[in-house]
Specification:
Blueprint (H helix, E strand, L loop, with lengths): L7 H7 L2 H5 L27 E6 L2 E6 L5 E9 L4 H15 L4 E2 L4 E4 L12 E7 L10 E13 L2 H8 L5 H22 L2 E2 L2 E2 L16 E3 L3 E14 L2 E14 L2 E2 H8 L14 H11 L3 E4 L8 E3 L2 E6 L4 E4 L2 E4 H9 L9 E6 L2 E4 L3 E3 L11 H11 L3 H16 L5 H5 L3 E2 L5 E6 L5 E2 L8 E2 L17 E3 L13 H18 L2 E3 L9
Parallel strand pairs: 26-27
Antiparallel strand pairs: 1-23, 2-12, 2-22, 3-5, 3-7, 4-5, 6-7, 8-9, 9-11, 10-11, 11-12, 13-21, 14-15, 14-21, 16-19, 17-18, 19-20, 24-25
């Protein structure tokens, strides 16, 4: 896309740094810097028609001028990313840290953090409870923050200007800048990995539709965005693009699974579940996060381990050496008579079962499994959008969501980002001339708009194909229809000169 000059090969490598910088910190050896010795580009192409086009890159108009302090962030015990981010935010608030966190194990700050022992490491202890976010795990955590090094952007500036630079320092600088451009938006909107998924309630941008799209089954499609800083010719730029992901529907458990099992309403569950429905549901609920609703204000969150094989009125456990069913236990303990005691329960701990009707499925849970064909087809329909629509979504997201010029963390390091798309010089190459057999109508043809067909055309040279087969997966296809299809296929291929097919019809019944 860019005129990379002698750096073309290595820039392709740098273009993939976004997949590194948003996963974990890369430790680069300091023993010896690697120098680049890349073959120079022989020249610039001249064929075709020169054009200028807009791309989904936004140029850095002012190079960052701050020196960045890099700190390591280690947490014990290990925790998920939501918990790690929550712990950092709380420590930053309590201690007045004015930096950005990459979501893994690095803190970057234009001013030194207020630490007593920078190089030796400072230990912080934090108790997490009632965070209000089901993704954050309660518990006691120990965090060690230690100073690693100062980062200067001199090496990065050398690199993009074409001078020899330290590869290790270039990588570290790009990682730091990616943390700076993403810190604010990942705090403002739900994020998964390097992608954010804003909701229409969070963004004042009437021309940008951010409402989830309900898919067949118990799923929804959320449209989002991601951005990544990349080195380009003689500068830096932020690449912004669209993304999409499938999530579980949130809400009352029975209402959600009614959609999953194609029920008109939850009253149909009074007939119980068929063996097929139980199998589908058992696969669906595994590892699902749920919240109970039968204990007033106390609504603990659980992760489902499995679905019981017995319904609530026949699922027994022992209390004081007496057998009690789950349905009976809920009536005795909570004065709640189950409306659907003929349905199975979800097991959330050893011998702890919950009826489906007292559970809510928590929203915002990403689905990583395999979608049904109908659901997958519907998803593709909404994600395959025209280039103009995709371009408009990106432009509106830059203005209404990313808002680079108003991001305080980007401003804190003296970096400015252009509000307009980058203009790139390109060339439209003339299409090649296609030559057909002399027996064709019009022996040569120049494709238009990138396509052509074989109507009244014969290829220059075909091949013989003596062994070929047709597999029929249908159960009620008449054999004469199959033979007719094979003859027509052979005749068409022979007419076009593609291949010469030899036909020997044999049927194999299995």
């Amino acid at each position: 896309m860019f005129r990379n000059g002698s750096k073309n090969g290595f820039l392709n490598l740098i273009n993939n740094f976004s997949s590194i910088t948003n996963v974990s910190t890369v430790e680069v050896e300091h023993t010896k810097d690697t120098e680049l010795n890349i073959a120079k580009r022989p020249g610039i192409g001249t064929l075709g028609t020169t054009i200028q086009y807009k791309c989904n890159y936004y140029k850095i108009t002012r190079f960052p001028n701050a020196t960045i302090n890099h700190y390591g962030f280690d947490i014990i015990p290990k925790a998920n990313k939501d918990t790690i981010t929550y712990v950092y935010d709380k420590l930053a608030y309590q201690n007045g840290f004015n930096g950005v966190f990459d979501g893994n194990n690095s803190i970057y700050s234009a001013t030194p953090l207020n630490l007593e022992n920078e190089k030796g490491g400072n230990l912080f202890e934090l108790q997490v409870s009632q965070s209000g976010d089901f993704r954050v795990r309660n518990g006691s955590y120990k965090v060690t923050i230690r100073f690693i090094q100062e980062l200067s952007f001199d090496e990065l500036q050398k690199f993009v200007s074409g001078s020899i630079a330290s590869v290790g320092e270039v990588i570290k600088c790009i990682m730091a800048l990616n943390a700076y451009i993403n810190f604010t938006v990942r705090h403002n909107y739900p994020s998964i990995g390097r992608s954010i998924f804003p909701h229409s309630r969070q963004v004042v941008c009437p021309d940008l539709d951010l409402n989830p799209i309900i898919l067949p089954g118990a799923f929804e499609l959320r449209l989002g965005f991601y951005q990544s800083l990349r080195p380009v010719w003689n500068s830096l730029a932020i690449n912004v693009d669209v993304c999409a992901s499938v999530f579980y529907l949130g809400g009352p458990f029975l209402e959600v699974i009614a959609r999953l099992l194609n029920k008109h309403n939850i009253d149909e569950f009074r007939q119980g579940l068929s063996s097929r429905e139980w199998t589908i549901l058992a696969k669906f609920v595994r590892r699902l996060k749920i919240r109970t609703i039968h204990r007033g204000q106390r609504r603990p969150v659980y992760i489902v381990r499995k679905l019981s094989t017995e319904p609530a009125d026949r699922l027994y456990f022992n209390i004081n050496e007496a057998k009690v069913s789950v349905a009976e236990y809920f009536y005795r303990t909570y004065n709640r008579r189950l409306s659907f005691e003929n349905l199975p329960c979800v097991m959330v701990r050893n011998d702890v079962y919950l009826p489906l009707e007292v559970c809510d499925i928590l929203p915002g849970q990403r689905f990583d499994g395999q979608l049904a064909d109908s659901t997958h087809a519907e998803m593709i329909k909404h994600t395959c959008i025209k280039p103009s629509e995709r371009f408009n979504r990106i432009s509106r997201a830059v203005q209404g969501i990313f808002k680079h010029s108003r991001d305080p963390h980007i401003n804190s390091i003296g970096m400015d980002v252009d509000k307009e798309n980058m203009l790139i010089d390109g060339r439209v190459l003339d299409p090649p001339t296609i030559e057909y057999n002399s027996k064709s109508v019009n022996q040569t043809h120049v494709p238009k708009d990138g396509r052509w067909n074989l109507l009244n055309k014969i290829v220059v040279q075909g091949k013989n194909l003596e062994n070929w087969s047709v597999l029929v997966f249908g159960t009620r296809v008449p054999e004469p229809s199959i033979e007719q299809f094979m003859r027509q296929f052979r005749e068409t291929a022979n007419q076009k000169g593609l291949v010469r097919l030899f036909l020997n019809v044999k049927s194999i019944n299995s």
